[in-house]
């Protein structure tokens, strides 16, 4: 495609877009995705002609085309940026050329924000974002290793563009095909926030999404799954595990129905530990999907159910690099304690067939579960994350455990200090933990739009 032919094609697309949607044509003509054959051929052909005419003033050339009667000047900027991209791109080195893509993306976003004509850029905005964000992620990771200065410069720049686009989309009134992009844009913006190690920036995005009176079901299923997966991951980082569970569980159920194995594995890597921390035992079906899950979670489930605190912590201690890399080490080490104690008392009830427990009974089983301070010191050294008590277990500690379980809704009973006894209710002495957590910490009402 010669330069004249290209400019005529752009003119034809601009004329055809008057009174109709031109996004399909522009997404094809102005594509920067060199992995597609059509785009690669076009860029290569234009590059040869443009490099042979280095003195050509591209700004004046495009302005002379009088696109949209020069009523949409940002469109001219897109075309100029595209021609500069074609002229200067080194297809063999994205490191030398990524700035061209960012200039083009910035100009594209400005044109997209136009209230009169911007909808014609909708598909191009979608395709370019889909292509550019993963690429800039790779570039930043590489350059982060080379430079000791500010990290993630390109992704931070991309996030500013996506933020402007999001704010534009959420402010739109009436019907616009632009609105179909909002979930896609939000997902990419939130993923960028996670990549640049600023996931808490997602809070404002989620809060604004809850105010828009949207229906999640109106968007492509893959985008729905991605949105709730990221939201679940966000809640997990915030230690709001019950909320995290509901969104991750929803994503898992929907993902498994569309047979996306890679995505299912990604979701389960979070869902399985979150399930444990909310008092749920992951299904054998979920655990059997990957040897990784069987290796790392079958032992933890066994120790959790049997109330074996020292076994649970020892497994975390021995495999701490794995859990640390998954950002799970501290939540599992700390949040599991109350669940292990609850299951320990439950096992006492099953052994004794009684709902009345003396401090002596509880103390004996706690000592077996926790181990002595000497045992803990020998196993864990000075890593206090894995230790629970550095002195002998006495009545005060036993009472604190019982009171904590009672006040947190894990058991129903009374702690009788003078009698050194825990008396549990004869009717449902051990509550349903997920139900208790759901009641106390479940999803908020402003997220109901996700179920519509």
UniProtKB/TrEMBL annotation:
Coiled-coil intervals, chain numbering: none
One of the record's GO molecular function terms: double-stranded DNA binding
GO biological process: one example: poly(A)+ mRNA export from nucleus
Matching SMART domains: PAM
GO cellular component, as recorded: transcription export complex 2
PANTHER family associated with the record: NUCLEAR MRNA EXPORT PROTEIN THP1, UNCHARACTERIZED PROTEASOME COMPONENT REGION PCI-CONTAINING
Protein name (record): PCI domain-containing protein 2
């Amino acid at each position: 495609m010669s330069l004249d032919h290209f400019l005529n094609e752009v003119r034809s697309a601009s004329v055809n877009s008057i009174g109709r949607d031109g996004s399909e044509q522009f997404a094809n003509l102005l594509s920067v995705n060199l992995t597609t054959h059509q785009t690669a051929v076009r860029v290569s052909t234009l590059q040869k002609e443009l490099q042979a005419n280095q003195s050509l003033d591209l700004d004046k050339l495009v302005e002379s085309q009088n696109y949209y009667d020069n009523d949409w000047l940002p469109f001219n900027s897109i075309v100029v940026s595209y021609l500069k991209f074609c002229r200067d791109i080194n297809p063999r080195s994205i490191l030398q050329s990524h700035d061209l893509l960012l200039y083009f993306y910035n100009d594209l976003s400005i044109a997209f924000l136009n209230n009169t004509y911007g909808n014609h850029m909708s598909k191009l905005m979608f395709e370019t974002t889909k292509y550019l964000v993963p690429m800039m992620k790779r570039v930043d990771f590489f350059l982060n290793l080379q430079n000791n200065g500010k990290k993630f410069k390109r992704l931070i720049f991309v996030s500013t563009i996506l933020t402007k686009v999001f704010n534009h989309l959420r402010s739109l009134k009436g019907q616009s095909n632009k609105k179909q992009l909002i979930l896609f844009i939000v997902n990419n913006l939130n993923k960028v926030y996670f990549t640049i190690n600023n996931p808490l920036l997602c809070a404002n995005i989620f809060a604004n999404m809850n105010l828009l009176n949207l229906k999640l079901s109106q968007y492509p299923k893959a985008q729905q799954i991605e949105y709730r997966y990221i939201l679940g991951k966000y809640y997990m980082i915030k230690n709001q595990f019950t909320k995290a569970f509901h969104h991750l569980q929803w994503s898992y159920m929907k993902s498994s129905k569309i047979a996306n194995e890679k995505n299912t594995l990604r979701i389960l890597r979070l869902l399985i530990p979150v399930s444990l921390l909310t008092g749920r035992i992951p299904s054998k079906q979920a655990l059997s999907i990957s040897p990784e899950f069987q290796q790392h979670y079958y032992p933890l489930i066994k120790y959790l159910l049997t109330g074996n605190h020292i076994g649970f912590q020892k497994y975390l201690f021995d495999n701490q690099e794995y859990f640390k890399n998954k950002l799970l080490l501290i939540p599992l080490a700390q949040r599991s304690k109350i669940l292990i104690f609850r299951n320990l008392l439950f096992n006492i009830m099953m052994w004794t067939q009684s709902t009345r427990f003396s401090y002596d009974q509880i103390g004996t089983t706690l000592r077996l579960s926790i181990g002595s301070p000497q045992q803990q010191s020998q196993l864990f050294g000075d890593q206090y994350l894995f230790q629970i008590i550095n002195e002998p277990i006495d009545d005060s500690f036993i009472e604190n455990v019982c009171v904590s379980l009672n006040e947190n809704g894990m058991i129903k009973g009374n702690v009788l200090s003078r009698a050194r006894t825990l008396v549990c209710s004869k009717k449902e002495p051990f509550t349903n933990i997920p139900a208790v957590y759901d009641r106390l910490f479940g999803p908020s009402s402003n997220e109901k739009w996700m179920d519509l």
